[in-house]
Amino acid sequence: LPRAQLSCLARLLSAKNLTADFGRFPPDLLLFFDSAEVPPGTCREFYARASRGNLDLLPRGSSRRTGLLRGARTCLGVRSSRLEPGQLGSLGALVCDMEPESIPASHPGILENLKLCPALTGAQRDALNAVLLTGGTEYGDPSSWDLQTLKDLGPLVLALNQTTLSLVAKAAREEFSRSIAVTYGSQGHSQREKSPTLLRAFAAASASSHARLKRSTERCESKPITTNTITTNPFSLLDYSTEQFNLCLSNDILIENLEVLLEQPLPSQYSQIMKEKVDQFYPEGMPEGQLRRLGSLSRLYTEQEISRWPVTSSDTLLALLDPSGGDWDDSQAQQLISRYLALGGILTGPLLQEIGGRRLCKLQEEQVEQIPAEAIGAARQLNISSCSQPKKEQLYRKAQVAFAGLASTPSTYYCQIRPYLGGAPAKDLKDLANTGVAIDMDMETFLALNPEELQKLSVTDVKNLLGKNLPELKKAEKEPLVMGWVERQSQRELDCVLDIGLQGGMEDTGTTTPAHPTTPAGATSMATNPVPTTLPTITTPPHPTTPAAVTSTATTPVPTTLPTVPTSPHSTTPAGVTSTVTVPTSSHPTTPTSV
User: Fold this and answer.
1) How far apart are CA 592 and CA 184, in angstroms?
2) Which of 135, 270, 357, 500 could potentially form a cystine with 474 if both were Cys, beta carbons 3.0 to 4.6 Å apart?
3) Which of 286, 273, 278, 214 is nearest to 247 (CA)?
4) Cα dist. 43→23, 328, 480, 510 in Å?
5) What is the Cα–Cα distance from 505 to 487, expressed in whole angstroms?
6) 268 versus 286: which is more confidently predicted?
């Protein structure tokens, strides 16, 4: 199953509390389990089984993959670089992510773990060769290796450097070269796809190790390569030098037997010769039907050459993108897809799967806009994390249409649309959070949301989205995206609603006006509160009495509505100034009270 489907399935099993019974599930699925849900008493068995899964399903350096190794080390009591046999048995392929110094520091049995690694880093290869050169492993000193030893090393042969290989007897190397050619010829197509790197690499090394010292010639001095040679004894091609391979293979025989020749583990120099012969056979350009036959040769063409290919059919593009032909350079693949679209091609679901999310993100926005929504649905899930924000939004809108029929079942809908949520607006994220169904958004998806839209989510929205993964938010609190969101939230709400210890929110501060504002010394202030511009109605006797010691001087009516006077809660009257407030009490004029 694809990575995204395994992730969704693991989430559903967790929701039903079925993860404890991990023995029922395949190792690939266990890679997506929450290790915190594994009972401590069975953790050793869990990691031993999970380590047999395909680690390539988890990107190297991802939080889930590093967390898996961290959990395994804790469970197995690994506290140093040295790994003992019992620990190695449970770690399996997880050893592939350990530091290079673990290789020479550990029990020699670590070499069996390293055979499980899809690829070793340069530092790990150096450490492996250093261990082999000591002669202290079960394989002994390289100078004593024979055919069986090389076979026993298996994929580790690819990591051997020139120093190690130079110590191996020439006869053993040549015998091994022929044996892998025979093995390669007897394998089915699906098996060949799993091991061409090993077979081709060692065949190339063997070919270069016995370079022929013949004078340059312009004619075939060996047997001419015929259809019978290619179909009945293809391994004999390794006996031809590159020069003789070129001179003894005619263009007609090559075109007739192209697929068979491309299936042989021939050195890369031979492939370049075959490309040149194909071009000679089609001087006016290759017909579209022949493009489908190119296989690995297609990867040798330049962008300029690809721009002239007649790629009009989706079947042709699928054949060219087939990974069995090897990896395309990004610039080549971009040119190939652009050529197909320029000639009126439409990107279908199967094509999008072959193209992959990373290359999809390299298309122009107008090219992305041409993708039908149903193609997104048929492509299942694509990793579009490397896309620009506008492209993420384009693809999200298409995914929304593609998966609209699943909206009534939020958990299923989320599993399908999850890779595209980086382009979702805040409104849609809020709707997803408030479906009443546990979404349990993983932190990888959360951190990939549009930063501007994330800032619009409330504390409750985030709590509902993350569900059981809410504690992961605390672990990610130093992420700029999380820090920016936290700063916009009330600290009290973060504490009360989330309760996971997030700090950095806004403190709740009141705006209470002090009851007694400060007045400078020497000033007499009568205005302790803002003066209203419209006075309240006060009922007074018809003939008010003027208080003693007050002289009435007003003979004109005083308006009941005062002009607007700017005031402030902390008004200060300058020293030596008398503050006078006039308060009318009725329609009968009264003398202002002077204080």
Assistant:
1) 113
2) 500
3) 273
4) 12, 41, 34, 52
5) 5
6) 286
Dihedral over Cα of 569, 570, 573, 579: its sign: positive
| CB < 8 Å & 24+ apart, contacts of 446-449 | 446/473, 446/476, 447/476, 447/479, 447/481, 447/482, 448/385, 448/421, 448/422, 449/421, 449/422, 449/424, 449/481
Say how far residue 242 (Cα) sits from the centre of its chain.
42
Q: What is the DSSP letter of 592?
A: P
561 forms beta bridges with 534
Last residue of a domain, one of 476, 506, 536: 506
Q: Could you list the residue range(s) of the whole structural domain that residue 71 is in?
A: 1-137
**Helix or strand (DSSP H, E) at 389:** helix 389-402
Write out the DSSP string of 398-455. Answer: HHHHHTGGGTTSHHHHHHHHGGGGGG--HHHHHHHHTSSS-----HHHHHTS-HHHHT
441 found inside a domain: yes
| Window from 5-9, 180-184, 279-283 with minimum mean pLDDT | 180-184
What does the H/E/C string look like for 542-580?
A: CCCCCCCCCCCCCCCCCCCECCCCCCCCCCCCCCCCECC
* Cβ count near 221 (within 10 Å): 12
In a domain, 389, yes or no: no
Structure tokens at 259: 């697929």
Report phi then psi at 300, rounded to 5: -90, -5
* Structural domain includes residue 494: yes
Return the ∠ at Cα 66 (arms to 61 and 69), rounded to 5°. 140
- Are 540 and 513 contacting, i.e. CB atoms less than 8 angstroms apart? no
* CA distances (Å), origin 53, targets 27, 48, 92, 117, 153: 4, 10, 9, 11, 21
User: Residue 498 has what DSSP assignment?
Assistant: I
Strand partners, 451: none
How does DSSP classify residue 497? I
pLDDT tens-digit profile of 501-537? Answer: 999 999 876 544 443 444 344 433 333 344 343 434 4
| Cα 558 to Cα 95: distance, rounded to the nearest angstrom | 93
* Residue 309 forms part of a structural domain: no
Q: Which run of H or E residues covers position 313? A: none
Asked if 295 contacts 301 with a C-beta cutoff of 8 angstroms, the reply is no
| Residues 6 or more apart whose Cβ sits within 8 Å of residue 573 | 519, 520, 523, 524, 525, 527, 579
pLDDT in tens, 361-407: 999 999 999 999 999 999 978 999 999 999 999 999 999 999 999 98
Helical H runs in 157-236?
Answer: 162-166, 170-186, 189-194, 196-209, 227-232
CA neighbours within 13 Å on the CB side: how many for 280?
14
* Alpha-carbon span 354 to 180, nearest angstrom: 30
Query: For the chain, what is the domain count?
Result: 2
Per-residue buried b or exposed e for 6-21, using 16+ beta carbons within 10 Å of the residue's own CB: bbbebbebbeeeebee
pTM for this structure? Answer: 0.60
Task: Give the domain-ending residue among 467, 490, 506.
Answer: 506
Of the chain, the percentage scoring pLDDT greater than 90 comes to 47
518: phi > 0 → left, psi -120 to 50 → alpha, else beta; which?
beta
CA angle in degrees (0–180, nearest 5) for 382-385-389: 115
Torsion, Cα of 235, 240, 246, 251 (10° steps): -30
